[in-house]
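ok so dumb question maybe but i'm new to this and my supervisor (M.) told me to 'just get the structure for Thiamine-phosphate synthase' and walked off. so i did the thing. is this what she meant?? sequence i used:
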Amino acid sequence: MNPPLSSATTELPVRRILDANLDRAREGLRVLEDWCRFGLNHHDLTDKLKHLRQSLGQWHTADLRAARDTPNDTGTSITHPQEQRRTSVTQVLQANFCRVEEALRSLEEFGKLHQADFAAACKQWRYQIYTLESEIMGHQRFQQLQQAQLYLVTSPAPNIVAVVEAALQGGLPLVQYREKTGNDCDRIVIAQQLKDLCHQYGALFLINDRVDLALAVEADGVHLGQQDLPIATARQLLGSDRIIGRSTTNPEEMAKALAEGADYIGVGPVYATPTKPGKAAAGLDYVRYAAANSPVPFFAIGGIDAQNLDEVMAAGGDRVAIVRALMQAENPTAVSQNLIARLRAAPPHARA
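this is what came out, is it supposed to look like this??
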């Protein structure tokens, strides 16, 4: 299987590189496989990763292992602060996808000095991992969406980043960046900061209306109003692994959003709110209707705060989207913690 390398002076270093990267790729695949098995409970993804890991293992031959020299490997003492801590499962997955992809690239290049068909196989495996990354991260996003009960929709504020981070520190799982005024140069800077913060804390980050901005900052998805892009168009642009939500105010709009393939819906405004000036409140009856009829997660929205949350939960709304109650809170961390605790204690009317 392993013909002589091109030069005696490069043979040992190349074998060491191949050995190290085979280890690295297989270790990364094992981490991803374990999450698909135990975290996502997804048989097909687990099977694909296991097959890749075992296929790589067939090339990890005794002569490559014999080239290993761990005591004299200068790389074992080199580390980086980012490697010392992970703050979310998403970070663990992303780090290990990068590990596998980088290892496969090195195996492909140095494998050309070792065996051509091995290098070609590594190239194909790398493409498979790119596809699996989109698929697995999509499953991870949708699982997080199913579990999320508190949803912050931002409003303009000079300290928006600080407010969002404080809410995230309280366990907030989902943020939507909503900014109707200003310029795109400012929007994209803030969106990138908020996306990075959300992912640091293991939360999902969506952008209101703007599919282009969502693509630019690699957001987890978008939230669309009734007058925004058709969901099919947004899906074509974003891909199947991103979340798309739609605002609805009545059963007819809900039915249309579901038929279009919305991953979740907003239900409201439950109460009159300055966020939606001139729009009549949909009321608690629509929350009750959604609780009884929506097959996808729905978030009650519109004027909801700590004082009226019990009414919303009694109507079946155990997922809520909040604007002012968090954006204008003196202590967003405490408010997030309180709301999440109360929502978790509610009977699971709507959650799948």
